[in-house]
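Handout, section 4.2: multi-component inputs.
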Amino acid sequence: MTAVVAPIVLGAAVVGLWELFVKANDIKPYLLPAPSAIWAQFRRSFDLILDAAWVTGLNALVGLLVGLVLGLLAALVAARSRIADGMLGPIAAAMNAIPIIALAPLLNTMFSATSSVPRRMVVAIVVFFPVFVNTARGLRQVSPVQRELMRSLNAGPGAFARMVQLPGALPYFFTGFRLASSLAIIAAVVAEYFGGRQNGLGSRIASAAASSGYPRAWAFVIAACLIGILVYLVAGLLEWLATPWRRAGSAAGRRRRPPAVPALAAAPATAPAMAMAPATGVAPATDDASAPWTASRDG
Amino acid sequence: MTSTTPPPVPALSPTAAGPAGAPPAVEVPAVEVRGVDQVFPVAGGGQTVALSGIDLTVAPGEFVSLIGPSGCGKSTLLRVVGDLLTPTRGEVRVFGQEAGEARRAQTYGIAFQQAGLLEWRTVAGNIELPLQVHGVKKKERRERARELLELVGLADFAGHWPAQLSGGMQQRVAIARALAERPRLLLLDEPFGALDEMTRERMQAELARIRHETGTTVILVTHSIPEAVFLSDRVAVMSPRPGRITQLIEVDLPGRLGPPGESGDAPSTDDAPSADDVREQAAFFAAVTAVREALRAGGPT
Ligand SMILES: Nc1ncnc2c1ncn2[C@@H]1O[C@H](COP(=O)(O)OP(=O)(O)O)[C@@H](O)[C@H]1O
Ligand SMILES: [Mg+2]
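Output:
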């Protein structure tokens, strides 16, 4: 119960203080608009926001699915052969090191100006890494006891994969999936800052900010946050449904949530901050603007 | 899965089942280990001699314990018997078959020190695993799992997840799983090692009963002298590295639950002497002393 109530109370308090702070200090809207002003814009532009959210959401979803499938397949291949693991591992690590978002302008020039493909590709590439790394780790995680058990039963590789390896990797896969689901929204929004069709949330944020419609820009940011939270919750729900043994009462089941690959935590934090700067064009706004992303990522 | 049909299960036939008291001398041993050495390479170029010149013969229906200081090669010997390790030298036969054949024919069931349950399967699902691997139909699996849960006293826990069970309960599930295919040989590697003393004694009594009811041959690795004495027909005492069997000690405890048809074969296990009675007789203490002295003679522990 407190798990639900506490964040709501905290959120309400923060919004309240924000409103007070802006009103009391007479903060300029380009620095920080009041929540009430953002809310007014949110209601006024609701239809536009809904359309833009749909476009960005679909890009994120398609990219997410493609990235998931590719990450999963690559992990299966890597788990099957040492050679493939030796090749894919370093490539994945190298991919993680480059800010994928930086590819967006290049991909945009490869396709027609109205194509959604480059943005979806950016999302898919961003999603691929956490899914691949976490799933591959899970597939390697079979305990020696279980290995010997299956050998004592003379189980073939098929039965071994189906009954031991894949179910054991499921929690790891979902750790990657949860990370990827938040990254997908971030990537889908930020990729829009670099051109392409101007109909998604990212484009709307950029153009609202460029025409000094700061509360309006914030209203779109809020929409992006809401999608992020929604996707994260859906990922959590799927995990909950797919791994019933991990929610069964005892604390023992819970303790075993696999740790996410740590390198990933840094990746999303840099991407939006870096991309926000040219979009808003106003230096002081940058730090604040990236805050909602941080919130939606940690869910 | 397997092309070799396992020989008929002699589960409930006593050792000397021959017509009109034929001598049991010619029968095929359950396990025969001849001149087994096991050498492991060590990182940096050296090697560990884990087993050296092991000879051991276990009769069908017999209960043999392997006891010795830790690191003396007990688990290694058990793995060699189960064909989970190929010995560097020597030969292992299980019911007359070469160890690999015996493994492929599902002759033995095995339980390790860690229960090694699949946490994503329910208790019943874990017990069904061996049957599922070998293509037994669902209905039959369910039925067998129910029987076994009854046998290990977990009838009410079929639908639980392993994480919801205590260590002792998990270990009982692992033993039930090892019994699922009615193996003729049970290999147990310190199955009660992680349990508290009370649970441990209860589990030992249960194992004695299960053995009495099924007639399986058992090899048990343990580092507990009372446990070895309480359960075994013979205790194989091993020396520190390189592991050898230094003594084989026969244990005869009057009134104890033995193999089916032997000593304790009252029609119901109810009127058999209690486990505590068995543990309190002079013969028990004498055997404990004998094993302890054999361990001491083997070298520092
Ligand atoms: N797979 C292995 N590789 C290398 N050394 C091993 C391996 N398995 C066991 N050993 C070594 O063999 C010796 C006997 O081990 P083990 O059979 O596990 O002893 P025990 O079960 O009696 O405690 C130990 O010194 C151990 O380090
Ligand atoms: Mg051991």
